[in-house]
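cron nightly-structures :: item 1 of 1
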Amino acid sequence: MDWNDAISKIEQSLGHAFDDRSLLELALTHSSFAHEYQQTHADADNEDGDLGHYERLEFLGDAVLALVISDLIMQRYPDYPEGDLSRIRAGLVCAERLAELARGLGLGQGLRLGKGEVATGGRDKPSILADIYEAVVAAVYLDAGFERARQVVIGHFKDIIESVYLLDLLGDYKTPLQELVQAQFKTTPHYRVVKDEGPDHMKTFEVELIIDGRSYVRGRGLSKKEAEQDAARKALLSGIFDEGERDTPPGREKP
């Protein structure tokens, strides 16, 4: 495929036609290609033939992506503390996920690589593809401003945020909760679905956490497991297991 054709297809995939296409070209230029270009084009007049590569754009794109995703997940999880939000963001923008997005956009086909990187499969290396994705986000930002970059990123991540199980991003809260309840209250926590709403492909569940026969907190999620994890998380953060509360199940008065 001709490189210019690859660039045009990437613009179509992004849904953004660049006013300054050189920004996209820079975002798709790996340092190995830039170094080879410099060696080849440096001439007798000491012109260095410097082409530039995507690393500075990657730095900027990382910041733009972090801001957009942070805003999205704060809206999606309005009651979650900073630590959980940080873990969710890290899980969403991990290199593997960014590489998959880059593949879907065809960024590898437009990537300019040095011969060594081409020979070792650089067009499909997750680390390179993730970097390119961030560089392309920065290129959109520089070409058309933050709001346009935000729209592009939201288009890529909105469905991901809605479909990825919170458990996959945050880990397990139910196990430590069960251990604490058994150790301190001599009983086992239970979860009961109290509401489910929405279409089958995007149903939201609400469950209540029950300890010793009494309802304590409720959790929500896109699956029963996710809602149970949310309820367990809230219980662990609520202070019920703080010193002075450990001998009394929720809802019971101490003698």
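cron nightly-structures :: done
The chain has 13 helices and three strands.
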